[in-house]
Amino acid sequence: MAISIGIATKDREQIGEHLSRLLADTYSLYLKTHSFHWNITGPHFNSLHTMFETQYNELWLAADEVAERIRALDVFAPGSYSQFGKLTAIREEPGVPDWKDMVGQLVEGHEMAAHTSRQAIKVADSAGDEGTVDMVTGRLKEHEKTAWMLRSLLK
To answer: Where is the Ferritin/DPS domain (predicted)?
Structure first.
């Protein structure tokens, strides 16, 4: 059955491309945050271990929300490491940095995801896709808040 939700095919595909970048950023940030949760050491172990767990759980749920929005637009969602690697703006961390670098990298990651969110909002708004604008605005606020909280640890 053909989709008829009031958004043209070309617009849905373009929105899907931007949401796919957001999904890749979200999933990449999830992986990095989870890795840091496992590997954190030092004087702030307990607080950062707990904070990172809260953050990766939130990102896990967010990835599902973004992917399901892509599918609601009748676009296929990326779902492999190679696809995410091509789409994400989040840099991979191959090692185990100290706690300050972990926090700094997560600040960078959330800020990059905020940039990606803003681009997706612009594209969705120009197509009259209020559902995507609403969802991504929530994601944007979450990334900005998390970046602020992490950044505060470094002052």
So the answer is: 17-154
Residue 60 lies in a domain: yes
Amino acid at 38: W
Residue with tokens 């969602």: 77
Would you say residue 83 has pLDDT above 90? yes
Residues in the chain: 155
Give the domain CATH number at 27: 1.20.1260.10
Domain assignment present for 92: no
pLDDT band at residue 3, thresholds of 50, 70 and 90? confident
* Predicted structure pTM score: 0.95
Q: What's the CA gap between 7 and 109, in Å, rounded? A: 31
Instruction: Write phi, then psi, for 27 (nearest 5 degrees).
Output: -70, -40
Has residue 1 got a pLDDT over 90? no
Q: How many domains does the chain have?
A: 1
